[in-house]
Amino acid sequence: QVVPNPRSAQTEYARRFRDIYGRYFDDAPSPAGLAGYLAGRYALRLMARAGAPHRAALLDEVRRRSDVDLEGYAVRFEAGRGSRYDARVVEACVRLFRERGFSLAG
User: Fold this and answer.
1) Of 26, 55, 61, 96, which is most buried with the most CB atoms under 10 A?
2) pLDDT digits (tens, 9 = 90+) for 45-77
3) Biggest CA-to-CA distance, the chain
């Protein structure tokens, strides 16, 4: 498990997740849900850093693998660990994102 149990964690990111989750769902939040929430926040941060709503700008930001702090949850990358991604998957996600009418603008 990469993230703490959101039902008992007392961090800012867990509190915010519980608050948002509770607005829309009746069941208890799960670690998988918290992991998804943080992944989404990370993706939004990368899109904001990319600056331009262009595929190339977003892919450049993905390649940089910059460290990010998400309300106290640190996303850190170590050289040689988890450094591979499938560019086709990234491009498919960006295409789907656009097809659904979302904007990459910060």
Assistant:
1) 61
2) 888 888 877 888 888 888 887 888 888 888 887
3) 41
